[in-house]
Amino acid sequence: MQTAKPILDVEEKPKLNQWLTLSLQHLFAMFGATVLVPMLVGLSPGTALLSSGLGTIAYLIITKGQIPAYLGSSFAFIAPIITATEIGGPQAAMLGAFFAGLAYGAVAMLIYKFGVNWLMRILPPVVVGPVIIVIGLSLAGTAVNMAMYENPLADPTEFVYSGTHITVALITLAITVIASIYFKGFFGLIPVLVGITGGYIAALFAGLVNFQQVIDAPWFAVPDLYMPFVDYTPSFSWTAIAIMVPVAIVTLSEHTGHQMVVSKVVGRNFLEKPGLHRSLLGDGVATMIASMIGGPPNTTYGENIGVLAITRIFSVFVIGGAAVLAIFFGFVGKVSALISSIPTPVMGGVSILLFGIIASSGLRMLIEAKVDFSYKRNLIIASVIMIIGVGGAYVQFTDTFILPGMALAAIIGIVLNLILPGRKPEEETLFNENKAA
Q1: What is the DSSP string of 262-306?
Q2: Distance CA 327, CA 52 (A)
Q3: pLDDT tens column, 82-134
């Protein structure tokens, strides 16, 4: 556990003259990643900021103001949102996100009733790790297309290669890598934002930036909300649910890991008080709020955990201040216009690293859990998950109900893990490290 005395503990309020600065620090830490997700899936960055702020406030309320965690756009849902949108439009993606939030709530209730061991038995690292790898690798084509082509959203037969685009993408990638490795302190926490800024400048010199939309945008503008019964009539879709809900397998494990890390940083066991069930419920409610206004699903952010660790300022009032600022920036029209003016090769360059990191995070989970691949059982489970997921296999039940590759891979992985004999006890739980601590 963290032994250094906090500068501000969880329940302490900052001084008024410091509050804004401390909250801005958290805002900038989450900003780049939170607005990147909606840009990649065709949603509004302003709405993402709004849903991020609202979701964080809901999370703080549900956890009784006891966990200093900030919620932002989830990268795990990028591929499912794209797939669901292609099949049934944005409304299908929002429906799936809403049910993913409900799945969080259902798991939270079960944890409250029966504890957590059952969940960890269903979702050990040998299942979750390969699913995370699949999520990252399934996005590889999206990143490369944005980096290489003038028209990455066109039909593949109409792609036009651009040397200028790939150059800007590689410059963006290089700056992001340098910032990640060599920058220290606060700037070391926001390498994505640094990379996008550097890439934007490079794109400006390359003539790829249209700044007119920023000039024309008003200072105050309501975000592009996408609300049921206002902007569309909701329609039920088993396919959308099947695409989105299984991703909760990954985000549940990600959330649990974040709670373990925050517990160590702050020096309190948040898994026990206020409890994992409360933090999961807060995450689920935040995702449901996002789906009701057209934002991407939310999740706790590792970037902001890093800010906590470095500053030793654990105040939930600082986190709440960042949430209020995010809501405010969501209504600043010029901010949304500036984000929208970022050229696709800039986003492609930074996405090469980010999507690769997602896949590598799955490998990291397998390594840290010491999953033994000389053991046939583990080798079979991981192999089947990755080939089905990356290969894009699917099962079509009806014309309107398709179980896509990522969901199919996750479900088959869970079934194999439950029925194959010879599970090792040390691979049953993700909590061994936390118990030892």
Answers
A1: HHHHHTS-TIIIIIHHHHHHHHHHHHHHHHHHTPPPEEE-HHHHH
A2: 8
A3: 888 988 899 999 999 999 999 999 999 999 998 877 877 888 889 888 888 88
The count of other CB atoms within 10 Å of the CB of residue 93 is: 30
Contacting residues for 365 by C-beta, under 8 A, at least 6 apart: 125, 128, 129, 132, 253
SS3 category, 423: coil
Distances in whole angstroms, Cα of residue 277 to Cα of each of 106, 112, 138, 223: 10, 6, 31, 32
CA distances from 238 to 78, 274, 317, 388 (A): 19, 34, 40, 20
Q: Which residues pair with 299 in a beta bridge?
A: 72
CA distance 61 to 22: 20
Q: In this predicted model, what pLDDT tens digit does every residue of 239-271 receive, in sequence order?
A: 889 888 888 877 887 788 788 778 888 888 888
Could you give the CA distance from residue 364 to residue 272 in angstroms, rounded to a whole number? 26
Residue 3 has pLDDT above 50, yes or no: no
Compute CA distances 266 → 2, 67, 310, 311, 356, whole Å. 6, 9, 11, 11, 30
For residue 217, which phi and psi values (nearest 5 degrees)? -70, 140
Q: Which of 322, 307, 423, 326 is nearest to 372 (CA)?
A: 423
Per-residue burial over 310-327, b = 16 or more CB atoms within 10 Å of its CB, e = otherwise: bbebbbbbbbbbbbebbb
Separation CA 29–CA 339 (nearest Å): 16
* Angle of helix 248-266 versus helix 405-419 axis, rounded to 10: 70
Nearest to 433 by CA among 129, 120, 115, 10: 120
* Segment 143-195, tens digit of pLDDT: 898 899 888 867 777 888 989 999 999 999 999 889 888 887 767 766 777 88
Tokens, residue 408: 């199919």
Give the contacts of 305 (CB within 8 A, at least 6 positions apart).
69, 258, 261, 262, 265
- Helical spans, DSSP H, in 63-138: 78-88, 90-114, 117-122, 125-138
Which whole-number Å values give the CA distances from 412 to 171, 271, 384, in the listed order? 40, 29, 8
**Burial category of 435 from C-beta neighbours within 10 Å (exposed 0-12, middle 13-18, buried 19 and up):** exposed
Query: Who's near 351: CB < 8 A, 6+ residues apart?
Result: 36, 40, 139, 142, 143, 146, 147
